[in-house]
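Table S2 (text version). Query chain:
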Amino acid sequence: MDTDSWKGHVNGILYGIQFDRALDDTVVARVADGVVGGLYPGGRAETLDALEQALRYSGPLNDQAETHHSEESIREFLSRLVTALNARAAS
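Corresponding structure-token output:
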């Protein structure tokens, strides 16, 4: 997956959380449920691949879909989202 592809997935997720005050477990669960339920394009496997690539990327993740969340907060959220998506595959 090239940079534009994974950034599209991440931007879609960031768009969906832009108005959340805190990126807590409720938001993680809501987004994970949305991914599994087909709310986000590409499904669980493609989204996981995109998130894993994003977390390895050294540049900013919110340079196109601005949110009030810090880069550190976004990366921590995406990491927790990966964990949640992996857990949903196991259940």
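Notes on Table S2: The helical segments are 3-17, 25-36, 43-56, 71-90. The chain has one domain: 3-90.
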